[in-house]
Design a protein that fits this description.
The chain has 143 residues and is of the alpha+beta class. The chain is 30% helix and 20% strand.
Length: 143
């Protein structure tokens, strides 16, 4: 019987982001968490904005998390499936990030969330910090 990893939770986003080295947690204008490395954001909790809304009701999503990605191809890999919890809006065209609603985090596993947040950190950390972290955390063999 295959064991399924547990679903990701909102608390996991905070724990994983805080667990990366050299991270500061700044507060946004409305107290929303913004995780940074070297003064560069890699995960932040967005306040409701007009570009991310429920198509049925028009209500702005109150729980959008912005996560940096290493490249446009990484972004497309996360957002191309319309059933994926990851999405983007025209406001983020050309921006190396994806959006995810906190209420949809359980649709992904903790392992995938961990990898996505770690990749976000790596995409924003200095080359020296990223190299040091990768040397101490070699990727697990796939198979």
């Amino acid at each position: 019987m295959e064991q399924r990893e547990r679903p990701a939770r909102l608390a996991d986003v905070h724990a994983i982001a805080r667990g990366m080295p050299h991270v500061t947690n700044a507060a946004g204008p409305r107290g929303n968490a913004i995780y940074q490395v070297g003064g560069k954001s890699f995960v932040f909790f967005r306040t409701p904005r007009p570009d991310a809304f429920d198509p049925q009701t028009g209500e702005r999503y109150p729980d959008v998390i912005v996560v940096w990605v290493p490249s446009e191809s990484d972004k497309q890999a996360l957002v191309q499936d319309p059933d994926s919890p990851f999405f983007t809006t025209p406001h983020f065209d050309g921006h190396p990030s994806v959006l995810v609603r906190a209420c949809r985090l359980p649709e992904i596993g903790l392992g995938e969330l961990t990898e996505i947040v770690q990749d976000a950190w790596l995409s924003r950390a200095s080359r020296k910090r990223a190299t040091e972290w990768l040397a101490a955390h070699p990727p697990a063999p796939r198979g």
